[in-house]
Every structure is written in C-alpha cells, then in structure tokens.
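Sample entry (344 residues):
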Amino acid sequence: MSSHTPRAPVARHRIVAFAVAAVVVVAAVVVIAWVRASSSHDDAARAAQRYVDLIASGDGDLSELTTMTAEDTRALDDAARLLAAADERIEVLSLGDPRSVDPPADLPAASTLEDPVEVEVRYRLAGEEHTWPLVLGRDEDGWRVASPMVGSVDWDEPGLLNVDTDIRLGDILLERRPRVSAAGDGDGDVQPLYPAVYRAEKRIDPYFASVPTPVVVLPGSATAEPVPTLAATADTRAVIAEAFTTRADSCGGPDAFGQCPFLDLVQTVRADGDPSAPGWWKGLAGRPTITVDAVDDGVAVSGAFRYVARQGVRTMRFTGRGEIGFDTATRTPTLTGLEVEQAG
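Predicted structure, serialized as tokens:
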C-alpha cells in the first residue's frame, strides 16, 4: 500500500476550499460594485432632481444651475436671472431612473465626465407635456449636467429700419442674440434660456415700443421669434409733428421748392394760386392732426393752410400720408415720403 494514498482527500479539500473562497471573493466584488453603482446612480438621481427643481421653482440661488453644469458660462448666469423673471416655469411630472449611456457625440462636455447617465425628465409647460434627456456625469466635484436643459429664441436682427432694437424678456435687457454682423458660435452670440414662458418686448427707446408678447422656450432647438408690433410712443409723435410743422414753415422761405409739401396743390387751376409769387404762403390754419401709428402703418396728416390766390386769401384743407424713417446717426425718427392732396 502506498504511503501517499491517505493524503489525496486533503488535497481535494484544499482545492475545493480555494474555489469556494474565490467564488466568495468574486461575489463580494460584484456585490460591492453593484452597491457602489446603485449608490452612484442614487446620487445622480438626486442631482437631476435638484437641477429640475431649481428650473421649476425659479427660487433660491439659481446660480447653482450654472455650477451644476459641466461647461458653466456667464451666459448661463444670465439665463438664471432671466428664468427668475419668467412669467411661467415648468411643472416637473416625473424623472426616470438613471441609465448608463455612452457619451453622446454631440455633447463635448460629456466626454470630460465619468460614468455618464441619462435621466428622462417629463414636464409640463404652457399646457403641453414634454420630455428632455438630461445627461449627467461625474467629476471630482460630484455629478454635473452635460446637456443643460436650455433652449433659445431665433431672434431676427436688425429689427426696425436697419436699426437694432432693444429686446427685453420681462424687465431684463437681452444682450446676446444673433446679429447680421455676428460671426462664429462664441458665448456672445445667442442667449441660452431655461424652459419657461417669457414676456418678450422690443424697443428703440424712447421712440418705439411693442406690447409684450409671450414666447414659450423649450430646450433644444431655437424657438421662433415672436412678432410684436412696434408702435410709436409719445416721443415719436412729438418728433414727427415737429418735422411736419418744419416742412410747412419752409413754404414761406428759400427752401420751399425742396421742402414745402403744398406747392403742387396751390398751383392747380382750381386753387388758382402762384407759389412762386412773394408772400403766397400764409401759414397753417390751426393745428394739423397728425396720427403716428405702428411703424408699418406710417403717418397720417390732415388739416388746413392759408395761401394767396388771385381773388384773395383762401383756405385749403388737405390730407396726406407719410412714412416713418430713422436717422441712424442721431437715432431719432424722421418723416419721409410725405404726399398730400386736397381734401374733398
């Protein structure tokens, strides 16, 4: 009988013990990894919840929205200020569970973060439901948003008479929007906006202003520009009235043939006047009526003037139309294209 035979069962027991230990170690590693992943996803879910809650409330320190974003910019700080002034913000309906994703190719910020996940945000705005895939990842400071929940407005500039208008959302002057002369895709071109309903208004202070128009901004592609109607203010009406009076006053001076709007009316057979004769102009009869409407509608004028005809001094009533121009050097309205006719 061999002296080694009794040792065989001991070797087998050791092999089994090592195998069991290895399985236990692997299982422990798997459990630890699962616990860590689960805990990490919980942290991501909390970060996503905090982010959308700030957007929904518009309260508190909204600059946190910027610091939670992987690529924070001054434009995002401005977006937070604009969000606080919005007329309506989102209502968060639900957040999906974080799910691991590959870094989206169209999100450069995601490539700098670890363990990217996507959380589906379901929300309501202006009576309609929407979803947004919120992508987050980790860096040394915690979970950061790689796909900011922002959109923009497709502003079409210049706005009026080849002059840039001032655009306001709420009471805040908007500094960033595309212009004809803008080049590149830098931070200064387009103002990002968090999803909300904003009160948009255009102005050329102090001469033109629009009635505030609501615009619904959603994250992602740009929202079409609202089309508010620019209307003349009291300052514009005063400038146009003065310009018309100046044109009328020119009728009795050396600039009559270049400025006076009534020459053709006076020298008709019916009017029987001679605008080339000295002293033919006797001035406006009373104060003319000058209506300055929306920019596209222009200027309407009516009134009467006195002049010398062969039979003596007469009064002629008139009506007319003109257009609103704008002197870009002085940034003041002008009266252009004035045409008058004898009123019936």
